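In response to reviewer comment 3 from the previous cycle, which asked for concrete evidence that the modeling workflow produces usable outputs, we include below a single protein chain processed end to end. The sequence was submitted unchanged, and the resulting structure tokens are shown without manual editing.
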Amino acid sequence: MIKKTLKFLFKLVLWFLGITILWVVLYKFAPVPYTPLMAIRAVQGDENYETKHDWKSIDEISVYLQLAVVSAEDQNFLHHNGFDYLAIEKAYENNKKGKRLRGASTISQQTAKNVFLWPERSWFRKGLEVYFTFLIETLWSKERILEVYLNSIEMGNGVYGAEAASHFWFNKAAKNLSQYEAAAIAAILPSPLRYRANPASNFIENRKAWIVKQMRNFGTFNLTEEKAK
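The workflow returned the following structure tokens.
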């Protein structure tokens, strides 16, 4: 009985590894048409709810927006392997001291969660997030991770991805966003259902100004060498 159970579990693990790796390899090349979060929001929404999502290649997304999300969400994105251990340690210390709870999720982790998983706070889901983060960091380039992130992340009520967000908030294509418009969209990412990019509240205006400052301090932002991967 034990032998049969172990054999079954072994086969189950092999199937899981095979399916998930193929899934990640597929999305290395193919656009991500739909995510679990889109489905959850659609079920939760009323009859007037509409999912706005229009995939664009990274070349059709303003470099300002690329830099804005990196500056706002994960300034070590180009250098870490999917996990920012210094940020994790800092977040742990702050949370332990009773300061305002904060996370340390990288863009890679957020991409893994948005594309392959569901928004739930549990150790099981977090474990899967670590697994998928490892896979995309291993099998995708940084450019591809950022491209999928910018096309999949929630940027408003029913608004997903850079192109839909650009039209929704500023009535223009993602490739035409200005520095301040890009910063405004990046500013709402911690809570896109609560905040508005345009018109912006005082809080978002202040956060936008901080992001623009970080963008200017970031230096050269170039993903060209990542394309060779």
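The CA atoms of residues 50 and 158 lie 6 Å apart. We consider this sufficient to address the reviewer's concern, and the full set will be provided in the supplementary archive.
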